[in-house]
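Design job #97: recover the sequence.
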């Protein structure tokens, strides 16, 4: 469990507004245009200011499951890592691996830029209707698996906008802590 606990100690689950997080990077649950939207995308663009959209405009979009980084501008976070999650259909069109890829690619980009602290919203679970419990399981599992290979990341915070989402992430974390394979 020792190695695994090393990963678990790097994870935090909080309820709150991700735009208020004072971390190296916050993750934006974007769409493929990267030109803003509602939900957390709208909140981040609102808090970051117009310059964020101006930088996003020159990125040429981003494929679902991939991620691209910009400055954070007026946010407390120094950077924003934008990642389009999958639109939930019925679980048969690669939604799960694409959601996992969102988390993995954001962490890889953070490591590439020597970032140490990163905060994620519950990607895909709002407008894109990804089932919250399953999304939380994918988020926590993918992040712990990725952290084993990305030693530079010190803290990953799941910033949940409501109690249901936070409880789903806590349950997912409890479940992997209980797995014999994590010993
Ligand atoms: N801080 C943290 N979490 C937030 C915030 C916030 N300020 N605002 C919303 N959330 C939560 C939602 O409650 C949900 O749990 O973020 C999660 C993701 O929901 P959405 O923002 O709707 O993102 P998603 O489901 O991935 O849909 C993306 O919505 O806003 C558009 O442009 C975006 O087209 C894209 C789509």
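Job complete. Output follows.
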């Amino acid at each position: 469990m020792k190695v695994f606990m090393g990963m678990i100690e790097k994870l935090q689950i909080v309820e709150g507004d991700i735009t208020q997080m004072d971390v190296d990077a916050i993750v934006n649950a974007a769409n493929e245009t990267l030109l803003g939207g509602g939900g957390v995308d709208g909140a981040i663009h609102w808090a970051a200011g117009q310059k964020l959209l101006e930088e996003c405009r020159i990125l040429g979009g981003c494929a679902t499951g991939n991620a691209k980084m910009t400055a954070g501008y007026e946010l407390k976070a120094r950077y924003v890592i934008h990642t389009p999650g999958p639109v939930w259909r019925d679980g048969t069109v690669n939604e799960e691996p694409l959601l996992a890829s969102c988390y993995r690619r954001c962490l890889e980009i953070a490591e590439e830029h020597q970032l140490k602290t990163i905060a994620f919203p519950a990607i895909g679970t709002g407008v894109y209707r990804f089932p919250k419990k399953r999304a939380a399981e994918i988020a926590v599992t993918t992040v712990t698996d990725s952290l084993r290979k990305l030693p530079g990341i010190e803290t990953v915070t799941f910033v949940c906008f409501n109690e249901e989402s936070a409880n789903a992430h806590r349950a997912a974390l409890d479940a992997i802590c209980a797995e014999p394979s994590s010993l």
